[in-house]
Amino acid sequence: MAAQVADRFDLGPDARLEVEAVRGEQGQVRRLVTASGVFALKETFDDLDVDEAELTAAFQARCHDAGVPCPRPLADGDGCYVTHVDGQPVRLQTWADVHDADPMLDPASVGTAVARLHGVVVPATETPHEWHTEPVGAAEWRALVKAARGAGAPYADRLAALVPDLLAMEELLTPMVGRQWCHLDLWADNLRGTPDGEVCVFDFDNAGPAEPTRELAMVLFEFARTGRDRLHALVAAYEEAGGSGRVSRAEDFGVTIAQLHHIGRHQVLGWLHARDPEARARAHAGVEEFVGDPFRVGDVERLLGWLTA
Q1: Quick one: which of 53, 48, 52, 13 has its CA closest to 33?
Q2: Is residue 102 part of a domain?
Q3: What is the residue-averaged pLDDT of the chain?
Q4: Residues 135 and 277 grouped into a single domain
Q5: Residues 224, 120: Cα–Cα separation, whole Å
Q6: Residues 117, 241 share a domain
Q7: Structural domains in the chain (count)
């Protein structure tokens, strides 16, 4: 595969794949070394919407060229970001060395990076995806609890006890107007520190229409909920760098709430439908994170209090 990919992207001879793949929920990344340098080869497990992948890659390229600290996608000889090797879609981008996920990254660096992202204004005409806006709903949460109990899931009782809090949070969800394209996946997995002390944003696969304010709220939850000083440092750096978002209402945390709940649902279903011990273990870890460290109305009120202090 290495030689075929290098040929498609005109990267010269001596192509080889190094290191084991870094696996995510939707695919894996391997390091490709050629005469032209080091690159990240991204393979997708399930069917890939090629048109959507082309759009998100073009957005990432535009962000990179505007100074956002992120890898740059490469286009193949036909000018496409997605190419097919042995019938499988693959994508290529410049390589970035990053540290493990860490929600305690320097908040000022995070705030500056997110401001630069929001400074790349690509107007949106599409409706935001329901993953970012819609509740899971009472009926579905109760069905998941029932299924978990029926399957003897070790987390079933804790999930059941959490349902009232989940429903209270979902009452905060309101429609979102997609004002411009945003990254929409700025969890610690996708915004990491680098060996040179900077930060790097990657995995733009979920990019799409949103409001910068709601994305900023997600970043505050992920990187600054542990302390007022961290939150103030992040917001100050974000605003100083020209970021347009301003979090002021509970509804601004809508993307955070919707995504966390849909991720939690996805992990519970993954546990229930797992076909092998490895898949069940991955899903179990995700469920434990969801029920063990939930986002509650009191957390929203605390963050808003810090913002207005």
Answers
A1: 13
A2: no
A3: 94
A4: yes
A5: 23
A6: yes
A7: 2
Q: And the tokens for 47?
A: 């069917």
Structural domain harbouring 25: 2-94
Q: What are 118-156's pLDDT values in tens digits?
A: 999 999 989 999 999 999 999 999 999 999 999 999 999
